[in-house]
């Protein structure tokens, strides 16, 4: 198995890399902040975050604050371990001659 085979396909998208990177260094991040940080549309964030949730890489919390819906995200333990492994494989790939 080559180094490239160890890369996680679930993190190939730049949006998913961005979501995971933000969540690795923050606890809970709400929809509005995540959307602004990544400069993406509502639909783009919703579809990519849903895919990451399906893989159990992130947790999505939906609640009401007053009468307004609020969606927040955080990385799961599996997500943290998987993303670190993905980054380590990327680093090894860059170091190959």
Query: What topology, given as strand order, has the largest sheet?
Result: 1-3-2
**Fourth-level CATH superfamily:** Winged helix-like DNA-binding domain superfamily/Winged helix DNA-binding domain
* Biggest beta sheet attributes: 3 strands, antiparallel
Number of domains: 1
CA-based gyration radius: 15 Å
What is the CATH fold-level name? Arc Repressor Mutant, subunit A
Shape: elongated
Helix content: 40-55%
Strand content: 15-25%
The helix tally amounts to 4
Task: List the SSEs and their pairings.
Blueprint: H1 14-24, E1 29-30, H2 31-38, H3 42-54, E2 58-65, E3 68-75, H4 77-95
Antiparallel strand pairs: 1-3, 2-3
Structure write-up:
There is one protein chain. This protein is α+β, with helices and mostly antiparallel strands and 97 residues long. The chain has one domain (9-95): Winged helix-like DNA-binding domain superfamily/Winged helix DNA-binding domain (Arc Repressor Mutant, subunit A, Orthogonal Bundle), CATH 1.10.10.10. It has 4 helices and 3 strands; from the N terminus they run H-E-H-H-E-E-H. It has helices at 14-24, 31-38, 42-54, 77-95, and strands at 29-30, 58-65, 68-75. Strands 1-3-2 form a 3-stranded antiparallel sheet. A hairpin with a 2-residue loop joins strand 2 (58-65) and strand 3. It starts with 13 loop residues before the first helix and ends with a helix. The mean pLDDT is 93.
